[in-house]
Amino acid sequence: FAIHYFVPLPMVTILGRAKINLTLDVLGLRDDGYHEIATVMQSLALADTLILTRQEEEITLRVDLPGLEADERNLAHRAAALIQKECGLRGGVHIDITKRIPVAAGLAGGSADAAATLRGMNELYTLGLSDDELCALGAQLGSDIPFSLMGGTVLATGRGERLHRLADFPATVVLLAKPPVSVSTPWAYRSYDEHSSVFHPDNASFMDALEHGDRDRCVRLMANVLEPVTEAAHPVIADYRARMRAHGALCAMMSGSGPTMFGLFAEEQAAADAAEIFRKETDAAVHLTHTIGSDGEQQKSRRN
Ligand code: C5P
Questions:
Q1: Mean pLDDT across the chain, nearest whole number?
Q2: Distance (Å, rounded) from C-alpha 124 to C-alpha 17?
Q3: R_g of the chain, CA atoms, integer Å
Q4: Using CA atoms, how far apart are residues 156 and 21, in angstroms rounded to an integer?
Q5: How far out from the chain centre does Cα 164 lie?
Q6: Cβ(16)–Cβ(112) under 8 Å?
Q7: Distance from the CA of 83 to the center of ligand 1, in angstroms?
Q8: Across-strand partners of 38?
Q9: What is d(CA 35, CA 44) in angstroms, rounded to the nearest whole number?
Q10: Chain-centroid distance, C-alpha 166
Q11: Which among 11, 73, 179, 202 is least buried, having the fewest CB atoms inside 10 angstroms?
Q12: Cα 151 to Cα 292: distance, rounded to the nearest angstrom
């Protein structure tokens, strides 16, 4: 009666989680036009939900957010097409995406959906692809996708696709505030090249602090070299940082190439109060969430 073992599932539901960058350093420009980076990435509870249903050959997509492309331009669609091609798979899929992660925000929302699609297709058609194989496929589509597949707290190097798992960042409440401006990632990296960079995060010390579960020291060492670049074009970044700090954030920083600002808070209530103020006083898209560990669950607080 092991027959069910060989019958692919008709449907899978899978989460695609948002990320923030706890540190982000750019080490140089590569021959392929990408930048060599070293960034500590962190998964958040905030997630899109994807429901994948088997169907004949075709790939179709429904996204609940008007204005977001639901065709071949969508990374989830491209992820399904890549699996079909690489695995010689005839079967198709309908992908239904409930978006919660702000779009074009520096939170890897598109990458999260692509990663969830790769994992979902692997399950849906019992393809037996390993995590390494899924990450290699993901890296073909976008630098953040391997991290989105892995989750937790991770040092990403290369163009972001080389991953090294770290100790989970101590459980922390996270306030996200995305101002109503658009930032293109290629623009941010290009502009970085034109800025003379003044500081770099100390990733080695950050990882040492992380190893000791010392959140306060981690927080003091957090920095993103793209933040001054994006801030120069969008002063709202500085405004949000000041507001978060004034309302009790342990630190306030930009994620990825922005424009989302995140604040880490020691207490849930302080974060909720700050969220309320952002909703009242700014045009930000506001989310209250928390860090997620490598097991996909909220980590128990560790005492420093
Ligand atoms: O890999 P992904 O498609 O997410 O990258 C989008 C763009 O961001 C790239 O085309 C490149 O301009 C820039 N980028 C970069 N260096 C990286 C990652 C992204 O220059 N490490």
A1: 94
A2: 19
A3: 19
A4: 10
A5: 16
A6: yes
A7: 22
A8: 25
A9: 25
A10: 16
A11: 73
A12: 8
